[in-house]
Design a protein that fits this description.
FMN_Rdtase-like_dom; 6 helices; EC 1.-.-.-; 6 strands; alpha/beta; globular; Rossmann fold
Length: about 190
């Protein structure tokens, strides 16, 4: 299983720090899960304009490839003007709509006010729903005060939410994998025969 963490911005460090914290917790819980961080600050991503992936630059092709190869996702974002940043929206637009279908997705976000957590509910979850992805019941929202001057997470409650999100991502992904391995009713019939 491959979990791709995405820092969906080209400015600011906190979204990537949150994504890394969840990825690290996933690895602590299950060393068999392969994790990778896609930090959009490290790529020259082109704007989506409908061309085939092979016609984009190398960085954009690599981004698309990482998205296509992942089994499940953790998306991190800052909240800009009450919304997601343009690079994250562009990432969604670069993908064939079926890419995220039936895949598990979790969210982390950082904002300057405590009310900006609603952006996850009102924007990210509907996008995931449109793309037919499964979202974790909880998510992590961090405020700037949850970090110290060195951008280290210092809030204990935030650390608990990170651990909970890591657990939910693993649980949901493994549950869906198990369901795919045991098609509807097969497990029940085998149990009854024995």
């Amino acid at each position: 299983m491959k979990l791709l963490g995405i820092s969906g911005t080209i400015v600011g460090a906190k979204p990537a720090l949150l994504v890394k914290a969840v990825l690290n917790d996933v690895k602590k819980k299950d060393m068999n899960i392969e994790t990778d961080l896609l930090d959009l600050r490290e790529y020259d991503m082109q704007f989506s304009d409908g061309r085939v992936p092979e016609r984009y630059n190398k960085d954009t092709q690599e981004i698309i490839g990482k998205m296509l190869d992942a089994d499940f996702y953790l998306i991190g974002t800052p909240v800009f003007n009450g919304s997601i940043p343009a690079p994250l929206k562009n990432l969604f637009d670069l993908l064939p709509p079926a890419t995220l279908r039936n895949k598990v997705m979790g969210f982390v976000a950082v904002g300057g006010t405590y009310q900006h957590y609603l952006m996850i509910e009102n924007q990210l979850k509907p996008i995931a729903g449109y793309l037919r992805a499964y979202t974790t019941p909880s998510y992590v929202y961090a405020h700037n005060t949850h970090f110290n001057k060195e951008n280290e997470i210092i809030d204990e409650e935030l650390l608990e939410r990170i651990e909970n999100l890591a657990h939910e991502l693993i649980f949901m992904q493994k549950s869906f994998c198990k369901a795919e391995e045991n098609p509807k009713g097969k497990e029940r019939v085998e149990t009854q025969v024995v």
